[in-house]
Amino acid sequence: MTSLVEQINELVEHIELHLGDDMDIAVLAKRMQLSPWHFQRTFKSLVGDTLGGYVRGRRLSYAANQLLETDIGILEIALDTGFNSHEAFSRSFKTYFGLSPKVFRVQKPKVLLQEKPVLTQELVTHLRQGIALNPAIVSRPATLLVGFQTQIPSPFMFQESYCDLLEAPWMQLLDRLHEIPNKVEDTYLGLTISDSGLFTEEEVTYLSAMKVTSFERIPDGMVTYELSEQMVAIFEVEEVSEDSVNKTMDYIYGYWLPNSEYQRAEGQDYELFEGLKNFTLPDMTSKYVIPVKPRQK
């Protein structure tokens, strides 16, 4: 059986040979027998960048090398690296390197180009160092949620932090908790939803929500969402911060899933806050929940 590391290495080689081609995430995920979310999360955990960010960096690094080492025309380089026009290439290149392709070729600056990663099993094992997460595997009943949503940059299309964008829906929810009937006290969830299921949109929906027992009398401006009954793995997050949550996700997708008796099932990942009475506590903890099913032999 081909290991996860071998599969990702094969994918990296495929990308190298097809830098000018479109990368269809659905096709790549199916090739690895993973859901689009699982595939992209695993790629980011092992490679250290989103698929979109990695491909963009490799294309522009290849283009920069061509500008420095050859006399090939800028338009030809642009087309060879997957850009449809001179303008689109120049804009992206300047954003990445701080110089237009023309000026870059003339000045020949010393820049650090993005190299192809070399992935080993030792790297995968390294992901778990300092982390000892033994998740609880439970059958979660159907869960009803009520809350507020906002649009955020897709986590698999952009590297920028979006934590600041999450404050508004959470503040809205906390300010209007008293309006929500049938709520389960002190139980909150935060989850990201992709309309396509691929997370390839420029923007996806983030939902800050409270667990409720029914959808009766939903307050104006709030939305509803239902999580179906499902087996899930629940991981403790010792400190609620962007860094700690990302490290937990890297551990889950880069180490725990490939080495566990489970595989990711269809459904939503989410962050769970239970028994939480004060969102301002510095030592606030949470749980990270993923849908799972027994691994097929």
From TrEMBL:
| Domain HTH araC/xylS-type span(s) in chain numbering | 9-107
Sorted alphabetically, which Pfam families does this protein's record hold? GyrI-like, HTH_18
Record bears the keyword DNA-binding: yes
- One GO MF term: DNA-binding transcription factor activity
What does the record list as coiled-coil region(s)?
none
Top-rank taxon: Bacteria
UniProt key word DNA-binding: yes
The UniProt keyword set, sorted, is: DNA-binding, Transcription, Transcription regulation
Write down the InterPro entries for this protein, in alphabetical order: AraC_E-bd, GyrI-like, Homeodomain-like_sf, HTH_AraC, HTH_AraC-typ_CS, MarA-like, Reg_factor_effector_dom_sf, Tscrpt_reg_AraC-type_HTH
UniProt-listed PANTHER family: RIGHT ORIGIN-BINDING PROTEIN (PTHR47504:SF5)
State the protein's name: Putative ARAC FAMILY TRANSCRIPTIONAL REGULATORY PROTEIN
